[in-house]
């Protein structure tokens, strides 16, 4: 499937279909209007039949349009003019692709360049959103060992650019979109794998492959349990050490060719390949979804792919904290006291609060790279899902500037986050009579308590924490990874690289 950008003469193009928009109350977009005039009012004459109003996502197909060489014209409802948000546009693209998938169309021209996106209104954002939207609507989970693959794809998608001067912006947008899409797709693919395939070792092997593919810019170190022991990562080992699938921490070091600002950014992902809860075992209903407990690591992996594809001028340390939280006679227990890599001791009150244990040692480990800022991404708490539901990720920061930068990237990409407070008032929740900290609080404010726990280990740098427990995957019979928050992280990095638009 190929994308190209072109300044089209719409009536003269040979293609299976041209996609143009219609706003509410039957107002034709510029491109639609143009085709209507070329065909001496053919489109408006048929609109009088009343089959479409222009509401978001409505579709109607026209055939045999006089004086138009394309085989078909698809009119897609855009809703109210001038109030199209990024998420409306995503919906419009989704509806369009769902419709096209049912046809035999193999190539089409998308002429929606006249849409004004609220906030981000120019060609860069339009093209990027359209390309990412098309790709995400076409994403399919690959079934394990499936012999016949019936993946629906198009051959050629042409994006019409109305103003010739905007072609260069479109080209940049397309390049960025393809790299971001590769990141998102890689994240989804690895997250969707079953936990008997996607083990900590598997994660580390995928990380190593990045060093082969992007050998100019990426070096990967894999820390196994032996090395973890030397490093005194006892909290990480307590969680991961009881599984036959031993823990592996993959350290992906990306170094761009011209690191303009000499900035080092660390991204740390929770990579629990299966979370049974351990001795504090989870209820069996939906426990299978805990294969997605490595979504943070998968997001870091995907984001580094984007960075390498675009050769971002930054230094990025991406860490996949891979391990499995499962039972054996070797399992850690409620009551155990662990000495973390930082030297702080933790009393375990619940072995299901394992993510923070794996992360606290990784967050101490990352100090050796003297990062300017660290972002961890984790499916950390069910409480975050209770608080924010499934469309917004929870987020915390110990630095105002970093917080603003993340919120800005979130607004630009429509990958939604909401800041929750990191106040010292919550710290008493983690009191332990026998250790420096306990690993859970009382039953209230669970997402904040978890972030508070982590904040004890992030004093050396600017830090933000994204709790993606509600946003990383969709449940139900068609369960699957959403690829979030890869676009947000990519945008944050593009902004840091000062190559954003
Ligand atoms: N991986 C889970 C969090 C989770 C739960 C993510 C449901 C997505 C959906 C995490 O390791 C966990 O089990 N957290 C516990 C913490 C509790 C024991 C303090 C939770 O949220 O119940
Ligand atoms: Mn857990
Ligand atoms: Zn977990």
Name the CATH class of the largest domain.
Alpha Beta
**What would you call the shape?**
elongated
CATH topology of the largest domain: Aminopeptidase
- N-end to C-end Cα span: 26 Å
Number of structural domains = 2
Number of helices: 14
Strand order of the largest sheet: 8-9-11-10-14-18-15-16
Major beta-sheet overview: 8 strands, mixed
Helix content: 25-40%
Bound molecules: ligand BES, manganese (II) ion, zinc ion
Mean of residue pLDDT?
96
CATH architecture term of the largest domain: 3-Layer(aba) Sandwich
Which features does this protein show?
8-stranded mixed β-sheet; 21% strand; Aminopeptidase; single chain; binds ligand BES; elongated; binds zinc ion; binds manganese (II) ion; alpha/beta; 34% helix; 501 residues
Overview of the structural elements:
The chain is elongated. Helix 5 (167-192) packs antiparallel against helix 9, helix 9 (295-310) packs parallel to helix 14 (486-496) and helix 10 (355-365) packs parallel to helix 13 (446-455). It is 34% helix and 21% strand. The protein has 501 residues and is α/β, with parallel strands linked by helices. The longest helix is centred in the middle third of the chain and has 26 residues, at 167-192. It has helices spanning 30-38, 42-47, 86-101, 123-138, 167-192, 200-213, 225-231, 234-240, 295-310, 355-365, 382-388, 400-413, 446-455, 486-496, and strands at residues 2-6, 17-23, 27-28, 59-63, 72-79, 107-110, 156-160, 218-223, 248-255, 264-275, 315-325, 337-339, 345-347, 373-378, 393-397, 417-419, 437-438, 462-467, 473-474, 480-481. The strands form four sheets. The protein has an eight-stranded mixed beta sheet with strand order 8-9-11-10-14-18-15-16, sandwiched between helices. The relative contact order is 0.11. The two termini are 26 Å apart. It folds into two domains: 2-146 and 153-161, Leucine Aminopeptidase, subunit E, domain 1 (3-Layer(aba) Sandwich), CATH 3.40.220.10; 182-496, Zn peptidases (Aminopeptidase). Residues 275, 277, 352, 354 line the site of manganese (II) ion. It is found in: Cytoplasm. Its cofactor is Mn(2+). Mn(2+) 1 binds at residues 275, 352, 354. This is Probable cytosol aminopeptidase. GO terms for molecular function: manganese ion binding; metalloaminopeptidase activity.
């Amino acid at each position: 499937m190929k994308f190209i950008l072109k300044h089209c003469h719409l009536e003269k193009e040979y293609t299976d279909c041209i996609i143009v928009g219609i706003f509410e109350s039957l107002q034709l977009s510029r491109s639609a209007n143009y085709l209507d005039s070329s065909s001496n009012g053919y489109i408006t004459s048929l609109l009088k039949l009343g089959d479409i109003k222009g509401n978001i996502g409505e579709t109607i197909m026209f055939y045999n349009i006089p004086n138009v060489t394309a085989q078909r014209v698809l009119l897609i409802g855009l809703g109210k003019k001038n109030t199209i948000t990024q998420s409306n546009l995503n919906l419009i693209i989704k509806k369009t692709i769902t419709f096209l998938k049912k046809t035999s169309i193999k190539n089409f021209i998308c002429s929606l360049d006249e849409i004004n996106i609220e906030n981000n209104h120019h060609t860069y954002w339009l093209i990027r959103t359209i390309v990412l939207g098309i790709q995400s609507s076409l994403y399919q989970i690959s079934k394990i060992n499936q012999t016949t693959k019936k993946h629906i794809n198009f051959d050629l998608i042409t994006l019409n650019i109305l103003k010739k001067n905007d072609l260069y912006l479109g080209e940049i947008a397309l390049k960025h979109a393809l790299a971001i899409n590769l990141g998102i797709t890689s994240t989804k693919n690895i997250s969707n794998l079953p936990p008997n395939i996607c083990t900590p070792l598997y994660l580390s092997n995928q990380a190593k492959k990045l060093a082969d593919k992007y050998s100019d810019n990426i070096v990967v170190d894999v820390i196994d349990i032996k090395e973890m022991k030397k490093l005194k990562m006892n909290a990480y080992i307590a969680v991961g050490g009881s599984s036959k699938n031993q823990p592996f921490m993959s350290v992906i070091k990306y170094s761009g060719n011209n690191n303009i600002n000499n900035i080092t950014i660390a991204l740390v992902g929770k990579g629990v390949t299966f979370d049974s809860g351990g001795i504090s075992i989870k209820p069996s209903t939906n426990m299978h979804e805990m294969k997605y407990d490595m979504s943070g690591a998968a997001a870091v992996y995907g984001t580094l792919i984007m960075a390498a594809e675009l050769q971002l001028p930054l230094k990025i340390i991406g860490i996949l904290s891979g391990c499995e939280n499962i039972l054996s006679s070797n399992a850690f227990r409620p009551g155990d006291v662990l000495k973390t890599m930082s030297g702080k001791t933790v009393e375990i009150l619940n072995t299901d609060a394992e993510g923070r244990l794996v992360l606290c040692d990784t967050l101490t480990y990352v100090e050796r790279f003297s990062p300017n800022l660290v972002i961890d991404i984790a499916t950390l708490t069910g409480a975050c899902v209770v608080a924010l539901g499934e469309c917004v990720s929870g987020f915390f920061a110990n630095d105002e500037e970093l917080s603003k930068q993340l919120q800005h990237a979130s607004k630009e990409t429509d990958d939604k986050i909401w800041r929750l407070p990191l106040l010292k008032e919550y710290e008493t929740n983690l009191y332990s009579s026998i250790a420096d900290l306990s690993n859970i609080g009382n039953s209230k404010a669970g997402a904040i308590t978890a972030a508070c726990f982590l904040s004890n280990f992030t004093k050396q740098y600017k830090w933000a924490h994204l709790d993606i427990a509600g946003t990383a995957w969709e449940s139900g019979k068609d369960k699957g990874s959403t690829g979030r928050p890869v676009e947000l992280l990519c945008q944050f990095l593009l902004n840091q690289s000062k190559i954003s638009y």
